[in-house]
User: What shape does this take?
Amino acid sequence: MLNQNIWNADPGDGTYRNPILYADYSDPDAIRVGEDYFMISSSFTNTPGLPLLHSKDLVNWKVVNYLVKNVPTDRYSEPVHGCGVWAPAIRYHKGTYYVFFPMPDEGIYVIQTKDPFGEWSEPFNIRPAAGWIDPCPFWDEDGRAYMVAGVAKSRIGYKSVLHMVEMKPDCSGLIGPEVKVFDGNENDQVTIEGPKLYKRNGWYYIFAPAGGVKTGWQTVLRSRDIFGPYEYRVVMRQEDSAVNGPHQGAWVDTVTGEDWFLHFQDVYAAGRIVHLQPMCWQEDWPIIGEPVEGKDYGKPVDVYRKPDVGSVDWPVCEPAASDDFTGEKLGLQWQWNANVTGDWYALTGEELQLNAVPTKADRPYGDVPNLLLQKWPAPEFVCVTEMDLSHLQPGDEAGVISMGMTYGALVLTKGTDGVQINFVTGTQKYGPIVCTNTEEIREETGRITSDTVFVRYEVKRVGLQDLNGNEKNFPLEEVSLSCSTDGHTYIPAGTVKAVPGRWVGVKNGPFCVRRQDGEGGYLVVKSVEYSR
Assistant: This one.
């Protein structure tokens, strides 16, 4: 495996810096089981889905598993941008790990396992209907079980409402009426969503962000009865910090009795990155972040002491990015653009082979299912992909794509007398729910005769941009793609403004397709190396 140090939140001096993960692990939820912390996040239409991250100190994390191989239902054999697996919740109860995840058009699904690092059960749809999202299960001391959930206006016609329903303790079905326990439209908590349910000192707590991902805040509800009525308080605001809309996350504790909160921040192109906040209690209300003088809430911290997790020894680490493809399985940094099939790729132990999967001649690159993608690992970086084109057949296309609502691809088309280089840009357009059409522009930028090609993908922050109509406070990044036959001298192909995908950050990676009749070959990807 290639060496890397792309984003490290742990300087080794007993402190950490936020964000702890500069990567698009959106809608995070987390639990502690003994000395182990497990965190999951949304995965939408990308597969495998539901990444599971593991840590023992809450600062240094590794991806250790995916909980679903493919998104349930055949609909996701094609990319359905913005749909699929939304904000999940993870819980541990009586020796079993449970994950609830919503698919806004299909329902609320449940999976479970005894071993989080191993296989998880097939998804079971506990509430087959569109509209409910962001579910979270809860088991009370009396053995009864419940689920709280939010709603998606695009599917159900209204928003900012939280529902509670009792469920069978084994998660095999819902029982009893579905009760509206909070309406943010009536309480200045518009767009309240992402509820997480806990109990402490006889109080039931629902942690739920409100105000929207770019400009919102963190709210907490509490009640002595699980069905309410609930009172509420805002417990974290942006204030004068740089962390806009501190949003949806998870309350966890340590074996030493400390409380912490993991949440995301929307930074536009890079997606929703993960922060860690200290948490304290005041009169049975939490305060998240650094307490604000004279207020009953906190604000996000930038640098802080690491959590006291006891005598655990845990190394400084980060999710993998670079890859030399020498493993028996595809690295856990990689996800496909849709449900994967077994004929898309092969690993030889020395390299990755991407087959020239047949696709429609007019299919936009952003809608190709077999794009092999990974999240941005840092705000600025360079990624060099070394490829061997010698096994491609005339007419096969291979290259590297920067995938978002606005995307750019360096496309190498094999011919009988060499390789044509094209730069393709596309802009996806969306209706209320899904992508409706895509506009693409294709420009030839050169030709090469070598079968050895290096594609350089570079992300640079070039300024700030205004996304809320009030001030320029969001990063503005550009993506540049270039190619080389020797790994030293690069020929520019094109540049595109970085724009995130539908609810996801920009991703990048290689691909190989065939748009013509006849049998195609395959692309050899020898390595992908990231650097700062």
Residues 20 and 59 are 6 Å apart (CA to CA).
